[in-house]
Amino acid sequence: MDADLVLETRGLTKEFRGFIAVKDVDLRVRRGTIHALIGPNGAGKTTVFNLVTRFLPTSGGRILYKGRDITATRPAEVARLGMVRSFQISAVFPHLTVLENVRIALQNRLTRDTYRFWKSERCLDRLNDRALDLIESVGLGGSEQQKATDLSYGRKRALEVATTLALDPEVMLLDEPMAGMGHEDIGRITALIRRLAKDRTVLMVEHNLSVVADLSDTITVLQRGQVLAEGSYAEISRDPQVRQAYMGS
Ligand code: ADP
């Protein structure tokens, strides 16, 4: 086993009633990298995300997380093992404040194992301190008492990242983190993803090619459910098949 690989798929396949949405995909995501999945609409990117996080059952192939076969593992267990999908599924309560949202996320992570923690006198202080650290780390310092609903779109997404980080993931899957964002928010989230990737692995689906070029160590290009090319941005943008199929030149 290659110890550098944190997530690997072998022959990953998904069929929806006879329609093959993902076909024989071998994905190799290295620890500590930012890995982007790109490709035209319908290429199978979201389906791959849903398969590796086990939100969808596979039709064929295997999924390995840190060398362990998770092809039949339940989604909650996948999250507990450290691979967490952000954005589309994370719950932000609009009418609670930033601080309340992050505190709830932190509380969710605590289980019966931490019974002693709950009983400790400083429990609330420590929960608050940890929440404030997370809020600061996503660039929301100073907005602790603002209601989530009053945040700009980009800052809401930063809050979603904070609630996801409360689960302390090793691998974060980000589904179109820049979708619908203005220039300023894109800059903020780009910086945040770069910071996250210092001690985590990031796998993201993103349409904004300049963001992909700027952030990614490795890019996998999907087309009609299959891998068309893989490599650095410089490598894939030289690939004639990619240029023709994806970039239109
Ligand atoms: P992308 O994220 O790259 O836009 P998707 O993974 O969403 O692509 O979809 C890949 C293909 O699979 C599309 O043709 C889509 O219509 C099809 N598909 C996705 N989910 C389902 C489903 N639940 N049932 C049937 N077809 C689906």
From TrEMBL:
Supply the source organism for this entry: Marinibaculum pumilum
An example molecular function term from Gene Ontology annotations: ATP binding
Q: Which SMART domains match?
A: AAA (SM00382)
| ABC transporter domain sequence ranges | 7-249
Q: What is the lineage of its organism?
A: Bacteria, Pseudomonadati, Pseudomonadota, Alphaproteobacteria, Rhodospirillales
Coiled-coil regions in this chain?
none
What keywords would UniProt list here? ATP-binding, Nucleotide-binding, Transport
Question: Per the record, a Pfam family?
Answer: BCA_ABC_TP_C
Domain of life the protein comes from: Bacteria
Name assigned to this protein: ABC transporter ATP-binding protein
